[in-house]
Amino acid sequence: MKNIAIIAPSGNSDEVDEKKIKEFFNSFNLNVQIYPSCYKKFRYMAGDDNQRLNDIHNAFLNKDIDTILCLRGGYGAIRLLDKIDYELINENKKTFIGFSDITLLLISFYKKANLMSYHAKMALNGVIKMHKDEFLNYKNSIENNLFNSSLKGGILWGGNLASVVSLFGSNTNDYIPDEDIILFLEDINEPDYKIDRMLNQILRNSFLKEKIKGVIFGDFSGTGKYLEDIKKEFIDVLGVPFENNLNIGHNENNIVVPFGLKL
Q: For 167, what's the count of Cα atoms within 13 Å in the CB-facing half-sphere?
């Protein structure tokens, strides 16, 4: 991680302080380029589809860039999935970082561009608020694919639960991995019945279900009192080992998960 591009493939923001962002990264002797989508607005998204798509392509094509960091999540990535040039990405691989709505890009890049990426804090509400030691640990975890789990037998695959199940109307060849998976999931401010519904959508997706060899439950802040019962029912049906890691998700402790790492 030396030369960083910041792009906004999903939601827009009023809080982009170019000076503050550059000062943060420069303090670690890192160069940063903030791409136009970070300043754009179209409805609730960071510019229209073409503007956000162009920034993705241009960041991957930029030979000076080694790391692409998403500005934030929000909504909008799903609108780009059928427009992205995956061959371009496959031929110009970079370190790619994001989570939440960016889950859709992590999944699609892995499946269609053979790109391993990182489910981790993004620029605006995460990285630039880090203390020195926290950022150095974040950087080291990305550069060295660090992740601890007792589960084995698959690649790390998943992310934001609502984003994962939003792909289920797609052709399975667009998102279902070839390998077995350790499914990791997180979400925020979803009521119990919606978590229940989405987990049952996974159970009814036979193509994905047969790949699951373990489950890591991340943080589900904002849910109700039945969450643990719902999780147990999900695991009972799958019959696979699981663990809880509340440091995966929409919280201050959100850790790096190397998407596609074989456990």
A: 30
